[in-house]
Amino acid sequence: MVKSTTLQIFLVVAIVSFFGLLVIHRSLNIGAFSKAGKFIRKSVLADQAQEEEVPDSAGVPDDDSESDEDSELDGDTEFEVGGNFRPGSDDPAEDTWSNVRQRLPKALIIGFSKCGTTALRTFLTLHPNIVSPIEEVRYFNFNYTKGLDWYRRQMPPSTEDQITLEKTPSYIMSPIVLKRIYLFDSRVKLIIIIRDPIVRLQSQYAHSFRNVPEGARKPDFKIWVKGDSSENRITHFVGYTKYIRQVYDQFPKDQILVLAEEDFEQNPLSVMKEVEEFLGLEPAFSKEMFYFNKEKGFYCFNREHEFFPTVLKMVKVNSRTGCLGEDKGRDHPDIDEDFHKELVQFIRPHNEQLFRLIGKRIVWENFE
Ligand SMILES: *[C@@H]1O[C@H](CO)[C@@H](O)[C@H](O)[C@H]1NC(C)=O
């Protein structure tokens, strides 16, 4: 009798001290608030969020339509993205963060589909001061009637010093949507990413037919590009100028940042720095995080950096090389020489117009 009481007391004391130590350990961890700590903290939350997440395939647009689903940097690199904080986390650690709540976006990635918007979004969520929902919320086009409260509820919780970023590449396609965005917040920051129009066409083609089984017949690329009269894919896919002009018509220039996918792929650090400056954020990306991979001819993540485990969790990179865009052009259709010439000739004047509009030239392989 006496013996078993002693044992019980001993057990209770042991359990209580175990949890006590655990709590102290966790709060110390969070109190550190170093940049790396914050990165890691985000990825832990992202993991938790992913567990809670129920995949929702409903409402994904038909593949053959002009899908805004854009899940690649190049080729068909799919990203398993983290960085998505889910509401209703009862993690006690959140109490130590001042004023954590869901906030409306202060920045939007509004276009273009098949230009690497997912990779860009994912990269940006590696910044400790940026949070972003994984899914395209499509509030300003498809879910507008659900209202602002609904929109806010789609956002991950954030602290006061974090910026909420939402990505829906189809926003840029409609002047009505741009007007709605302006009415929502006339000072919102808009990020647009563009890409070699021919590569974009190839990428859309590959995406549209990615589920066609090996050996089965796919439509000829040339026929697919020309479409029928109601659906001319060339004009749709090379028409950056028209859509960007609509953005310039609605918003002041200093709220609009136009990036090139090719720059992002070849020098992610300088693009990240540009975005940090544009959003008014402290620099969090440094050159130590990247290295130049001579074989690939572009920058990859440095595996030696303390930040790399987080990168591995949040961005689909090759764990051996730290590189994105591993399968560059893997599924892209070949273009016969004559048709390539025809495309280049047709598109080149559009590019010139575009460069004049955005005030910078972009080197595009197909047009060199
Ligand atoms: C927004 O609307 C689209 C189309 O109606 C739907 O498929 C999508 O799931 C909605 N987004 C969210 C986050 O519910």
UniProtKB/TrEMBL annotation:
Residues 50-96 are annotated as: Disordered. Residues 50-79 have a biased composition (Acidic residues). Disulfide bonds join C300-C323. Keywords: Disulfide bond, Glycoprotein, Membrane, Transferase, Transmembrane, Transmembrane helix. GO terms for molecular function: [heparan sulfate]-glucosamine 3-sulfotransferase activity. Pfam families: Sulfotransfer_1. InterPro entries: NST/OST (IPR037359), P-loop_NTPase (IPR027417), Sulfotransferase_dom (IPR000863). 3'-phosphoadenylyl sulfate binds at R195, S203, Y299, K328, G329, R330, D331, H332. This is Sulfotransferase domain-containing protein. It comes from Elysia chlorotica.
